[in-house]
Amino acid sequence: MNHFLTINDISQAQILELIALGKQLKKDYQPHSQALAGKSIVTLFEKPSLRTRVSFDIGINKLGGHSLYLDQQNGALGERESVKDFALNLSRWCDGIVARVFSHRSLEQLAEYATVPVVNSLSDLYHPCQGMADFMTLSEHHHDLSKVALGYVGDGNNVTHSLMIAAAKLGAKMVVVCPPGCFPDGAVVQQCQQLAKQHGGELLLSNEVSALEGVDCLYADTWVSMGDDTPLAQVKQKFMPYQINQQLLDQTGATSVLHCQPAHREYEISSEVMDGPQSLIFDQAENRMHIQNAILLTLLKD
């Protein structure tokens, strides 16, 4: 691993190694408390954040490192100065770059010109740290991830892409249920179907919630992606049949529920389910920090 831009860049073995390391860190940080001593990580944010910013900042501190937050008050990345120059300058000062950006192309350019590792903390195409945290959370309840059936319901987006890639590489089953016209990117779907075939997994897409019957876990995300100013009320009629609620849990037989947050309660998920016994949502949020630290340790271990 030189960078971490998408789960597609790492192997099944590396996914499992990162999850194992994340679980070790969650149990005890003491052996790694000075692993990043003397190292500084720039965390760059073009978009607002709660979980990503806090989990990286505190997580880096737990490893003995220093986190420097950069917002984009001067405009989007590449406007005030080129992404190339941005990467070349930062590389002279810091030991790693964590970037949450609008365009995945910005991350690719950062990785192309930076001489330090670059981590994707969210782009328009992928959210790999989230996907890794999600499968770490599932691994806490399922010994063999290849036996897991994950059901994603709602709007196909960057989170869906990362989940599909991880599930396919792990040989798991994933069912993606979206309203017509809201499916994930077709090229990513084709890529994931091929990966699933190689690893013994399965990827199914449908606009019928009945396709979710038999999944182990239901997963939701917001119906309106970050940066889209469409009012939730405007899409409610289209998406309401896809809400995760107790009725859907009973119908599918799912034993757990995930949501990457921020959650809009009573829209994509009911409070009854979000606060209920099947919810792993706040474990999932905590695990963002542990898996991200596993990624940073792996990238910076030399």
Question: Care to describe what's here?
Answer:
- Keywords: Cytoplasm, Transferase.
- With 302 residues, this protein is of the alpha/beta class.
- The protein folds into two domains: 3-127 and 285-300, Rossmann fold; 131-281, Aspartate/ornithine carbamoyltransferase (Rossmann fold, 3-Layer(aba) Sandwich).
- Helix content is 41%, strand content 15%.
- The chain has eleven helices and nine strands.
- Strand 5 (149-153), helix 6 and strand 6 (173-177) form a beta-alpha-beta unit.
- Helix 3 packs across helix 4.
- The model has no long low-confidence stretch (mean pLDDT 95).
Q: Would you identify the CATH H-level superfamily of the largest domain?
A: Aspartate/ornithine carbamoyltransferase
Summing up helix and strand content along with how strands pair, one would put the structural category as alpha/beta
Number of strands: 9
Indicate the radius of gyration in whole angstroms.
19 Å
Count of helices? 11
Overall form? globular
CATH topology of the largest domain: Rossmann fold
Question: Termini, distance in Å?
Answer: 11 Å
The percentage of residues in β strands lies in 5-15%
Spatial ordering of strands, largest sheet: 7-6-5-8-9
Q: Helix fraction?
A: 40-55%
Please report the first level of CATH classification, the CATH class of the largest domain.
Answer: Alpha Beta
Question: In the CATH hierarchy, what is the architecture of the largest domain at level 2?
Answer: 3-Layer(aba) Sandwich
Low-confidence spans? none
